[in-house]
Amino acid sequence: MFTLSKSIWVNPSPEQETVLTRDHIWEGLIMKAEDATPFVEVMDKCRVLERGDRYLRREIEINGTKTQERVTFFPKHMVVFEPLESDGLIRNDIEEDAHGHLSIRFTFALEVPKDEYLSAQNYAQRMEKNYTAAVETTLATIRTFVKEGKL
User: Fold this and answer.
1) Suppose 81 and one of 11, 90, 103, 105 were both cysteines; which one would form an S-S bond, judging by CB atoms 3.0 to 4.6 Å apart?
2) 77: domain range?
3) pTM for this structure?
């Protein structure tokens, strides 16, 4: 299993055209949990199978492979994605420093597939690249939704 944690500033420039708030980020993460396809380029399909109090269970498809996840909500602070067929988790934390600057921290703790043809180190490097792109795409998609009035 490998773990990666990366924090990215939500509003890196004060001159930014669209400034995101905690509420924007939270609503965007809820939208991502319900349908991640606009947020994660490699995801082909995403559908909710079950809803409960502060959680949902969904089926996702990436490169033709289907899997299920439980998504747990910690309102306005964190969303946790847990694969149901393997060990690991993905956390999306909304953080704020002492000056009120928001960041989003994505933490991934995932097992290396047994049939992975790469070494664990190469697998981790590839996944870090993919997940960093997913973090950036998530923020860009949320920003677009705010500009378009969807959030």
Assistant:
1) 90
2) 2-147
3) 0.86
